[in-house]
Amino acid sequence: MTSFPDVPAFTGFNKPSRVEADVQDLNLRGTIPPELDGAFYRVQPEHQFPPKLGNDIAFNGDGMISMFRFKDGKVDYRQRWAKTDKWKLENAAGRAVFGAYRNPLTDDEEVKGKIRGTANTNAYIHGGRLYALKEDSPALVMDPASLETFGYTDFDGKMRGETFSAHPKTDPVTGNLCSFGYASKGVLTRDMTYYEIDRDGNLLFDIWFETPYYCMMHDFAITPDYALFTVMGMTSNWDRLKAGKPHFGFDTSLPSYLAVVPRKAGTSAEDIRWFTGPSCFTAHVMNAFQDGTKIHLDLPVAANNMMPFFPDINDAPFDPVAGATYLTRWTVDMAQNAEEYQSQRLSDMIGEFPRYDDRYCGQNYRYGWLVVIDPSQPVELKGGSAGGWVMNTLGMVDHQTGKEQKWWCGPVSSIQEPCFIPRSPDAAEGDGWIVMVCNRLEERGSELLLFEATNIEQGPIATIDIPVRLRFGLHGNWANAMDVPALEAA
Q1: Residues 6+ apart with CB under 8 A from 98
Q2: What is the pTM of this model?
Q3: What are the CA-CA distances from residue 338 to residues 229, 231, 281 (Å)?
Q4: 439 and 386 in contact (C-beta within 8 Å)?
Q5: Which of 7, 11, 39, 259 has its CA 20 to 30 A from that of 46?
Q6: CB contact set of 264 (below 8 Å; sequence gap of 6+)
Q7: Per CATH, the architecture of 124-489 is what?
Q8: Helix or strand or coil: residue 360?
Q9: Which uninterrupted H or E stretch holds 8?
Q10: Residue 380 pLDDT
Q11: CA distance linking residue 394 with residue 411, whole number of Å
């Protein structure tokens, strides 16, 4: 008998839905610009079966990919499982056989050594291919039109590491897919690998190095010459896993680091510059760019851990004030011998899930958007929270003027990560739309919202009713139909 635990992660808004669907011409209010021709892909963790150990965190759910196909002022919807090796093994068994999040010691014997990835963190298009991504495993390839799963790729045997990031970047100049893996030689190892892959899916080169200590390295940034990696105290060890504790714990005694890696074949560990700073929390980045010999990295930063489900490594209580993330700029000068990065807060909005106009990846840019936690607004969690924090506001920052905008979703709703859509390939920066999912908690329903990107405070120009409830998702991306042959032909 299938019975999910009666805990917040699996009840209320978070109750599993496990639905694959095809729905044409979704109901909408407002107007979808007729020039919008492409698809918005996003992913949510969704447990196929009740967790093996009786409870679990959402991050351990199987990937469920949603595709919203925009064309001729209409939106069609398709949703499919990302059928990883784990999904197939559990589907055949009819139950969960893999255990706790990133703890292979808790798996059934018959699946020891199998790839544990769930492909539940990002859905990314490059070279016409759809990659479903989770940072503890290789990249899963899916059909961008049908959402059929093809399987994991090692890029024709050239990818030597075991892991591939959930946050790759596309260089707007070269078209290369830039990515990395941490724990590249296995669980808890300090090994890192940087990869560049061309539009045809050929892995061009990799760079191997080690981090000062093992940590969660979820995201990174690129500039034309460098790849930038942040190291922070979300760490782990085998003693934690043997004791059955959450994989990660936050260690405030560890300093933070910024690694500046030259983006060129033949780079060795000796070519990397390391800069250090105080203990802090980082997860995602907004963007980075070069200014002469200086490098600027914009990212949300908190003084302490912002993930209560990965507790303090010494069991200190969670501190939501110290865990608040603020958009911050780290700066280093490659012409100087300084060993520390400089830090400057850019906004007083508490925000995460930062996004920008991806056509300006690694370049000086003007606009950024993020999910904001606005404590000044009333909150009524009828139906439960869709995530940990109450992310109730869409925020925008204009780095050129310093102006900010906000749009609040209401007291019984929360929002998911925004995504920028350019009006046309050659439109000016920020000229386009923001698309994102809104969780209607009391109604236990979901909507897809479309905004004019630089005028979000006016509210959505279109609200699309999603016929199934989408649990809290993580990341997603837009793809123009002209750039995805399978999508254009469908």
Answers
A1: 52, 86, 89, 90, 106, 107, 108, 111, 116
A2: 0.97
A3: 18, 18, 22
A4: yes
A5: 39
A6: 205
A7: 6 Propeller (2.120)
A8: helix
A9: none
A10: 87
A11: 14
The residues near 369 (Cβ < 8 Å, ≥ 6 apart) are 354, 355, 356, 394, 395, 396, 397, 418, 420, 434, 453, 456
Tell me which residue of 465, 460, 475, 476 sits closest to 443, measured CA to CA.
465
Phi-psi region of 72 (alpha: psi -120 to 50; beta: other; left: phi over 0): left
Contact of 204 with 196, CB cutoff 8 Å: yes
Q: Which of 163, 54, 101 is nearest to 310 (CA)?
A: 101
The C-alpha angle with vertex 59 and arms to 56 and 63, in degrees rounded to 5, equals 115
DSSP 148-217: -EEEEE-TTTT--SS---S--EE-TTT--EEEEEESTTSTT--EEEEEEE-TTS-EEEEEEEE-SS----
Higher per-residue confidence, 386 vs 360:
360
Q: Is 377 helix (H, G, I), strand (E, B) or coil?
A: coil
Give residue-wise pLDDT tens across range 226-245: 999 999 999 999 999 999 99
pLDDT tens per residue, range 69-128: 999 999 999 999 999 999 999 999 999 999 999 999 999 999 999 999 999 999 999 999
With H, G, I as helix, E, B as strand and everything else as coil, classify residue 145: coil
What gap in Å lies between CA 192 and CA 178, rounded to an integer?
14
180: Cβ contacts below 8 Å, ≥ 6 apart: 164, 165, 192, 193, 194, 195, 217, 220, 227, 229
**Rounded distance, CA 406 to CA 325, Å?**
17
pLDDT band, very low/low/confident/very high, at 488 (cuts 50, 70, 90): confident
Q: Tell me, what DSSP letter sits at residue 471?
A: P
CB atoms within 10 A of CB 303: 17
The owner of tokens 């999904």 is 87
CB–CB of 392/379 below 8 Å?
Answer: yes
Distance between CA atoms of residues 329 and 352, nearest Å: 14
Structure tokens at 276: 């250090």
Vertex 82: Cα angle to 481 and 470 (nearest 5): 80
Could you report the per-residue pLDDT of 306-355, keeping only the tens digit for each? Answer: 999 999 999 999 999 999 999 999 999 999 999 999 999 999 999 999 99
Quick one: pLDDT at residue 152?
A: 98
Residue 182 · residue 207 · CB < 8 Å: no
Residue from 377, 445, 369, 452 nearest 409 by CA: 377
Window from 239-248, 382-391, 472-481 with minimum mean pLDDT: 382-391
User: Could you state, in order of their start, the residue ranges of all structural domains in the chain?
Assistant: 124-489
